[in-house]
Protein: Molybdenum cofactor biosynthesis protein 1
Organism: Prunus persica
Amino acid sequence: MNASTPRMCSTSCAKVPEDLPKDNPVSDMLLDSFGRLHTYLRISLTERCNLRCQYCMPAEGVDLTPSPKILSQNEIVRLANLFVSSGVEKIRLTGGEPTIRKDIEDICLHLSNLNGLKTLAITTNGITLARKLPKLKECGLTSVNISLDTLVPAKFEFMTRRKGHQKVMESINAAINLGYNPVKVNCVVMRGFNDDEICDFVELTRDKPINIRFIEFMPFDGNVWNVKKLVPYSEMLDRVVKRFPSLKRLQDHPTDTAKNFRIDEHAGVVSFITSMTEHFCAGCNRLRLLADGNFKVCLFGPSEVSLRDPLRQGANDHELREIIGSAVKRKKASHAGMFDIAKTANRPMIHIGG
């Protein structure tokens, strides 16, 4: 589906490739105790955002990390180079809202020039993307995910507590016009809010190279998660099949978070991210570097370790690799069930990075 997708594996998990030396200390940093090789790093550039989405942060907002404790551009590039030189092939920039970071173009340029990096992606709310995307593409951005949970402007304003629906639509079209294919659109589905729009979103794939990605509502600190708001994958799929009976499952990559489908004569594709009802932990190849320099090996796990502090205390690359490798080795086989996740202490999504 995506030219930048890592090479296919023959097993159900992201395992060590056969041509990679098993005793290679560099690659071993990314290998956990279950044989999963982590080649995908998500980097949060900022905790700040120009929206206030209800499922991302509490109504009263969150305390943000003071600017001096946020990773600098040089620190981001140094840590990213450490990961890429150890085998990471894909980096995704997240936030907060990554496009509001003033040096994002320079960060993209430095990251895209890292030897061994194949994909440089971004997940954005699209508010400022349309005017920034041409430059970002010049700086090496290869893939775009845009978050949009409703096609109704009034609902958008209710959910995000801000205006801007038209700007997001303009950003989707700008990405298409600049040749991004597919343009991924992330939609968190919530019962009673936007579950009646599922098929309207699917219609967007008819004539445009859009990948609509329906995401099950996930619990994070302060977002008032409730199982009654969760629309499970099986129900979403049933609704789409009834309206689009030619829906067919595609062959997914072993490390995909999404279950991917195509509809006859549609230019785009439809995907479902089933974190709550059918987890995909066995094939997980993702790691997270938060804006404050904390390193997280699982989105739903509360464990974090600081890379910023040892970096600023003068740690060399070997010492940083030891810290990273130890954290990766402690990664669990899978996250807890959705009800346990809802009761587990974890930071708001705006702190973790989307």
In short: The longest strand covers residues 183-189. The chain has one domain: 34-351. Confidence is low (pLDDT under 50) at residues 1-23, 337-346. The domain at 34-351 is CATH 3.20.20.70 (TIM Barrel).
